[in-house]
Design brief:
Blueprint: E1 3-7, H1 18-24, E2 28-32, E3 51-53, H2 70-83, E4 87-90, H3 92-100, E5 104-106, E6 111-119, E7 132-139, E8 142-144, E9 150-155, E10 160-165, E11 169-172, H4 180-189, H5 198-207, H6 209-227
Helix pairs in contact: 2-3
Length: 232
Amino acid sequence: MKYLSVIQHTSADYLGLMEDHLEGRGIRFNYSRPFTEGASPPDIATIGDGLILLGGGPWGSAGTRDVPTLDVEVKLVRACLMMGKPVLAFGLGAQILSLAADGAVESSPLEFLAGTATRTDNNALNGFLPQKFAHITYGRDRPLPPPYAKELAIDAEGRTAIFQIGKNAIGFTGHPGFKLAMAEDLIMEFDEQPSNDTAQEFSKLREMKTAIEDDLVAIMTGLIQLTGWMKN
């Protein structure tokens, strides 16, 4: 049975709809919560068969409000890349993946956006990434992947939405398993609020519930194949 380490940066941002897909395939996972007292990110020797880095709410990596464990996590992801361990990274996690792969990040305000993204590579996620799919982001700052990274999709503004490093490290600027309750909890967890009209985005997200669930079926199929998490 495969075992994954998942790093949370806030209590409200978790795997969401992805949990059922992993559990249904018999893939175990354990949350690491370095933001809690006395906790720290996992060690490279204990992460198991792969690493998942989640979003950070108002935490970023471009200098405005950096997540406290940024340096430690960049080193951990770099070690995973060197060892060929699969990495999935969402939101802030994608920024950390970019930095670990010698890319960069750019500063952007805290935003909550419910929109769509478009595939740019027909072979993305082993061909399973839908041509258009739900793209939900809640966070600040954006990854600037290194030149050798493969762009798999772009958002409505033409910016990278999904990128791939090597064979099995994938960064999403959004969260493919995002749930409405996650946005509600993020807004309640922190004093800092998104700079845009959150009421409008909540309305759009409610209407996208079925689309998110449907898109995730294909996305998870491709991710599981790329990471090899169903192989013995």
